[in-house]
Amino acid sequence: MRRRMRAVAIAVAATLLLAGCSSDPLADQYKEGSNKGYIAGDGSVTEIPEGERGESISFSGEIETGEEISSADFAGDVLVVNFWYAACAPCRAEAPDLQELSAEFDGKGAQFIGVNVYDQADTALSFNESYGITYPSILDVQDGAVKLAFTGTVPPKAVPTTIVLDKEGRVSARILGQLKDASILRTLISDAIAE
């Protein structure tokens, strides 16, 4: 009986020890209890080879100025979709790089659109003014329809998340978390344009 109890105790201790060795960065952020209001990605990049891409992603919604736009409005161009909201510190940090890349590729085969997952129009417009953002953002706070459109392919698990759609509207790449090096996104866009 004692041997069995000792064996069970050793097995439980080993299990707990091994469980403590594994780490899930997103779960760790949640458990830390910092109340920062978001789960930040790690900046990891996922690229999908052209032959392995799924169906095109279709979405639509109202932008901060009240107009309706859809993915069809960008047909034939590479589309960079950035999920964000104004109080998100990494979103604010990457905003100048996104605007710079948007201006750099304007009229050269790529367009940008934001998807605001939290704010109302006034907050989004104020953010645009503060950071000089000239591309539109769909306000996805009411029903999450745009976020849902991506869920089956590469869900935007963290905010910010930046997704590059190829000329056919299929996901070619995703950056999960803050864009830390604009040259990475520049390369992903250029590669998608060149296809």
From TrEMBL:
<keyword id="KW-0735">Signal-anchor</keyword>
<keyword id="KW-1015">Disulfide bond</keyword>
<dbReference type="GO" id="GO:0016491">
    <property type="term" value="F:oxidoreductase activity"/>
</dbReference>
<protein>
    <submittedName>
        <fullName>TlpA family protein disulfide reductase</fullName>
    </submittedName>
</protein>
<dbReference type="GO" id="GO:0017004">
    <property type="term" value="P:cytochrome complex assembly"/>
</dbReference>
<dbReference type="Pfam" id="PF08534">
    <property type="entry name" value="Redoxin"/>
</dbReference>
<dbReference type="InterPro" id="IPR013740">
    <property type="entry name" value="Redoxin"/>
</dbReference>
<keyword id="KW-0732">Signal</keyword>
<feature type="domain" description="Thioredoxin">
    <location>
        <begin position="48"/>
        <end position="194"/>
    </location>
</feature>
<keyword id="KW-0812">Transmembrane</keyword>
<keyword id="KW-0676">Redox-active center</keyword>
<dbReference type="InterPro" id="IPR050553">
    <property type="entry name" value="Thioredoxin_ResA/DsbE_sf"/>
</dbReference>
<keyword id="KW-0201">Cytochrome c-type biogenesis</keyword>
<dbReference type="GO" id="GO:0030313">
    <property type="term" value="C:cell envelope"/>
</dbReference>
<dbReference type="InterPro" id="IPR013766">
    <property type="entry name" value="Thioredoxin_domain"/>
</dbReference>
<feature type="signal peptide">
    <location>
        <begin position="1"/>
        <end position="27"/>
    </location>
</feature>
<dbReference type="InterPro" id="IPR036249">
    <property type="entry name" value="Thioredoxin-like_sf"/>
</dbReference>
